[in-house]
Sequence to fold (106 residues):
Amino acid sequence: MDIGVNNPLGIQAIDIVSAHLKSMPALRPLVLVAKGFLRQRGLNDAAKGGLGSFALVCLCIHFLQVYPSPLSPPPAHINFGHSLFRVHIDEPGPPSPHVPDAPGRD
Fold:
């Protein structure tokens, strides 16, 4: 929960996110998958150094804007897993020493 007093930015953020959710049908499922990914790794709590919900939504909006699908069918047929994999393979970053492996990984 985030409470702001005399600060209209929260209401503006809600309007912006709502508009993007309407214009990008893939945004909601992408955010849910990313949230699950972060939760599995203990990186979903902004108070503990993780990524907060609003930052994650902004990140997903940016991803969908930068990597639009080259497919022309309706959004239900777009393979976002392939797009995420392509981004990871095409633009690999350095390994992060701060991200622990998921439990049960060898």
